[in-house]
Amino acid sequence: MTVSRGRDFLALPGPTTVPHEVLQAMQRPAVDIYGEELTAVTDSCLDDLRRVFRTERGRTYIYIANGHGAWEAALTNVLSRGDKVLVLESGRFAIGWGEMAEPLGIEVEVLEAEPRRTVSPEALEQRLRADSAGEIKAILVVQVDTASGIVNDIPALGAAIEASGHGALFMVDVIASLGSMPFEMDDWGVDVAVAGAQKGLMMTPGLSFIAAREAALAAHANAGLRTRYWDWTVREGELHYMKYCGTPPVHLLFGLRKSLDMLFEEGLENAFRRHELLAGATQAAVGRWSEAGALSFNIPEPAERSPTVTTILLDEPQLGRLLDWSWEVCNVSLGIGLGPLGGHAFRIAHMGHVNAPMTLGTLGAIETGLAALDIPHGKGGVSAAIDYLGSRLKA
Ligand SMILES: *Cc1c(COP(=O)(O)O)cnc(C)c1O
């Protein structure tokens, strides 16, 4: 017997739920790609992305690619073969970015964080001070690691780079955090930021975004890895067509326009607060479930847990049973563990177009599954989530 009917629930950290308004904005005929309407959409999206990245004078670029494409675009626009990058490991995704760099002939050094902890600003500063020859050309880090569920302290890392006096470019992946938590490109000294459409930005997969500030644009002038398709200079060309180095992704742009409108309508600060509250509710439930020992947080330090995704440790065979059960019996699709966490964890996304009933519903389905499958867990996780939200939202 199942209680599965109606709408499927994506509780994955990407792709996330796409609002109806965004889907509707894409439901229309194609338009002239040289016409005023589409050119205006491009211009307004490029401008508004600056507002989301929080950069006044940085340049923004839109790629018809997923996040991996934008990773490659970021690398090829500022680096040359033989350059060295320092990857700040804190889970899976910064390592993945480094793996994109290696085949390009970039030397990759990994600075490892303590297991299940954020990148240490002190360790970064120390490593940069030791690089007196300035061999490190760029530092690659994620704000949120979607696999481990950790959130790195980007302003503290920026301050560490500044204190070291090192000139490496500070390149930050905000794919799982932009629009969902504070990010201040200018104030935090970030030179290149990389984002994707299908996480906090509530869009279908298929677009990714880069913002680049002065130091990155200066490095771009001499970068040896530039290729025509990704090249920022080519994309600064006069013709609208060149902004995409070919046919613009017409429908995706109409969708993006709508999703940005929705984000500004809510207000960035309100969206951040909503994510914080829904993450807090999720953590309240997981904290309660953890009391019986079978489940636990992957990230032990509460302050280091992401406001967009929660990673929960649970071993096989219970893990597989729970994931199958939530999908087959309740239409809830949870995130699986990635990399070394494969077979040892699952993930709950609270990212993008989510509200209280969606999060509470997801938590309720999981708790029902824990009960139905006799997986030992502390009772009352959903109640704890409700108490948390109730106390935070008291009139
Ligand atoms: C999802 C994700 C990526 C990869 O993006 P794709 O669109 O799947 O290529 C990179 N970094 C982070 C932090 C992510 O969450």
Walkthrough of the structure:
The mean pLDDT is 97. The chain is of the alpha/beta class. Helix 4 links the parallel strand 3 and strand 4. The strands form 3 sheets. A 7-stranded mixed beta sheet has the order 2-10-9-8-5-3-4, with helices on both faces. Strands 1-13-14-12-11 form a 5-stranded mixed beta sheet, sandwiched between helices. The chain has a two-stranded antiparallel ribbon with strand order 6-7. The protein has 13 helices and 14 strands. Helix 9 crosses helix 10, helix 10 runs parallel beside helix 12 and helix 10 packs antiparallel against helix 13. The structure holds pyridoxal-5'-phosphate (PLP). Pyridoxal-5'-phosphate (PLP) binds next to helix 3.
